[in-house]
Design brief:
The protein is α+β, with helices and mostly antiparallel strands and 232 residues long. It has six helices and ten strands. A hairpin with a 5-residue loop joins strand 5 and strand 6. It is globular. The N and C termini lie far apart (41 Å).
Length: 232
Amino acid sequence: MKASRTRPERLWHRPFRRSDRRCAAPEGQATRLPALTGGPYRTVRPHPPAVRAAGPAPEVPSRLSLPDGTGLLLRPAGPADRAAALAMHGRCSPAALRLRYHGPVRDAGRYLDHLLDPRHGRSYAVAAPDGRILALGHLMWDDGEAELAVLVEDDWQRHGLGAALLRRLSATARAAGVRTVYAVTHGGNTGLIAAMRRLDAPLDFQAEDGTLVITATLAAGDPAGCAHHPGR
């Protein structure tokens, strides 16, 4: 049974799936993993065939140039980035984490164990020259769709990093044959709403009880992956 995209009671502390929080198992196998919330186990299902056939995400980093001349790097992220990603979560305010995870974050490390695992989707990071992660974006397979999620460290918000991540995530979804992507957030998250609008894709908005789902339909020729100038 599909869960509602918009009912908060089905979304609190569940950053991975809208439907029944499906994740991917290797080699098309179904398995069971410990649930972060809502019970001891959750079912893990394989990627859709088109996603499995797509192979790994492009590994080419992108140079980001902010209007003030600051140079950053947008690159793929994975399990090796867990410590840096956890440190970034520690620098984020409770308000930023609450918008990202739809509620208080009780154990960011457990979330990151799943989000950075390539079996579940694709992740990208925006990193400073010293290697610090400033923003994280995740693409999470959900049957024939994919969920987008972005977290930007407070001091680096309003610089276009979220929009750059969303463009790269959307390009990865399109390359995997996925044409529908969506983000679930709080209705007052104006930053994410603005970043989704910058995808230059048709958007659908569904709101219920303060929760907002923004669905984008990607075109085959959509230049969503061109993220070299986040400040624009």
